[in-house]
Amino acid sequence: MNQIVIAIDIGTTSTKALAVLPAGSVVAQHQVFYPTAFPKPGYAEQDANEICNAVINSLQAIANQINLSEAVAISFSSAMHSLVAVDVNGRALTPLITWADTRSVAQANQLRNSDEGVTLQHETGTPVHPMSPLCKLIWMRESGVAEFRSAYKFISIKEFVWHRLTGEFKIDYSIASATGLFDIHQQVWSKKALKRAGISSDQLSEAVPSTYQSFISLPALKNLHHLPLLIGASDGCLAQLGSNAMQPGVLTITLGTSGAVRRSASRQLHDPEGRLFNYLLTGDETVAGGATNNGTAVMDWFVREMAKSKENLQTTISNACTNVAAGSEGLLALPFLQGERAPIYNPKARGIFFNVSMQHTQQHFAHALLEGICYELKWITESVETVCGPSDKIVVSGGITRFPEWVQMLADVLNRTLFVTAGHDASALGAAYLAFKAQGISFQREAGAHTLFKPDVARIQSYEQGYRQFKMLYEAVKNLF
Q1: What is the spatial distance between Cα 308 and Cα 294, in angstroms, rounded to a whole number?
Q2: Among positive and negative, which fits the CA dihedral 133, 104, 286, 184?
Q3: 131 is in which domain, residue-wise?
Q4: Element (H or E) spanning 302, and its range?
Q5: Virtual torsion, Cα 87, 56, 239, 193, nearest 10 deg
Q6: Residue 292 domain-assigned (yes or no)
Q7: Which of 37-41, 72-76, 121-125, 284-288 has the lowest mean pLDDT?
Q8: pLDDT tier at 316 (50, 70, 90 boundaries)?
Q9: pLDDT tens per residue, range 50-84
Q10: Rounded to two decimals, what is the model's pTM?
Q11: 3-class DSSP state for residue 57?
Q12: Is residue 126 assigned to a domain?
């Protein structure tokens, strides 16, 4: 008889559910999309109830596709840095503020440029940036938001879903370590951060290990009440685990709506320049790295708002890579449409096209944006390797893998061989791995097919020049944003 784990990945644009076997193969899947609202400049909000319903619908859909007698557990992965104020019954009092929200830019800048900010980043592992729930809470307090005083708790989207399913207010160490409020060394809520935010630990959920288990009590999912529900971890840390990249020297690049460059470690890795995060996977496993705000969301914007034709994203990227030479004939793009995190941590940064001339076409602009995103990933990669040491292997995952021409461009920009494994969402597979391990079941993910992308020597020099100009352009304009 099969042994199945239902893995749920609560992402920024959708919730994905996979039914996974111990060999890593997927026997059923379901996905529900939902929107993000941008009601004011710098705001990025979602409806927590809509996302919760997406999780419930995904669980029901998977339950209808498999033999439930073969299921052994349910496990969660989730996006980081979200925040919603709730009442004592777990009902949302505010919209869900996502990682992409930059309304707390003034508070983040003030804190980041202080000795207190340096201390808090080292203690919590979370860079001081508007993405951080710490900065969001400071903004709520200083802006006089009524819900700041009336809220029973301040929680993330995973906690919101967990409470709806179980009636418990719990947060795993991994999601907690991305709040800017959690002492990753002592694995307790940070007194310094709580004081800065103006809240007490009672207004946060109880922090528990990623292996913490409970059971669903929601009547709508009565057929799943018998299955252990594993709280899991964050999508970034689980992507590292699901990519088989926990070994020393393996670097991962994940690029979807946003992106990140990561390395695993058995301890927190201190970066004196404050460029890297340190997030917990488990109590003794850390994932260090840097994140970018600007991934496929930038290209979605380009297709939606700037493209003259009705091409889809796949066609736009393919045509741009095929028809435009490396370097985009001198056109250079800073892709910071949503501000930027690592390594510059400048939420005020915005997009720029530089050196535009009459020969540049729509495809040149698309190509320059693709290059700009690759340059940013190279900048983060250099920052990570400066702290963590050289990498022996680079594994690429996420939405970028749907566009092989773009992966090839990344290999050319990095001048490194990239390893792309065929298969499903790495974060969900990481969540499945945790659940199988918690149930005492060996998870031996099959190696599967993989593709190597080797750098094209004919393009390397052009991209090295473009990368130098990319950083020079940012330095030249950063004070103008």
Answers
A1: 22
A2: negative
A3: 4-236
A4: none
A5: 0
A6: no
A7: 284-288
A8: very high
A9: 999 999 999 999 999 999 999 999 999 999 999 99
A10: 0.91
A11: helix
A12: yes
β-pair type (250-255, 259-265): antiparallel
* Distance between CA atoms of residues 346 and 367, nearest Å: 24
> What are 335-388's pLDDT values in tens digits?
999 999 999 999 999 999 999 999 999 999 999 999 999 999 999 999 999 999
The total number of structural domains that make up the chain? 1
Burial of 74 from C-beta contacts in 10 A (0-12 / 13-18 / 19+): buried
pLDDT digits (tens, 9 = 90+) for 7-19: 999 999 999 999 9
Does residue 397 sit in helix, strand or coil?
strand
Residue 381 lies in a domain: no
Residue 4, phi then psi, degrees to nearest 5: -120, 135
Q: Give the SS3 label for residue 366.
A: helix
Q: Is residue 409 over pLDDT 60?
A: yes
Neighbours of 471 (CB within 10 A): 14
DSSP 175-234: HHTTTT-EETTTTEE-HHHHHHHT--GGGSPEEE-TT-EEE---GGGGGGTTSEEEEEEE
d(CA 62, CA 43): 34
Q: How confident is the model at residue 325 (pLDDT cuts 50, 70, 90)?
A: very high
What is the average per-residue pLDDT within 405-413? 98
Task: Kindly state whether residue 324 falls inside one of the protein's structural domains.
Answer: no
Task: For tokens 């790495």, name the residue.
Answer: 426
| Predicted confidence (pLDDT) at residue 447 exceeds the cutoff of 80 | no
Which CATH number fits the domain that encloses residue 65?
3.30.420.40
Amino acid at 243: S
Q: Where are the beta strands (DSSP E) in 223-345?
A: 228-234, 250-255, 259-265, 277-282, 285-292, 332-335
At 414-446, the pLDDT tens digits run 999 999 976 668 899 999 999 999 999 998 766
Structure tokens at 21: 């076997």
For residue 83, what is the DSSP state?
B
Buried b / exposed e over 5-17, threshold 16 CB at 10 Å, is: bbbbbbbbbebbb
- pLDDT given for residue 273 in this prediction: 83
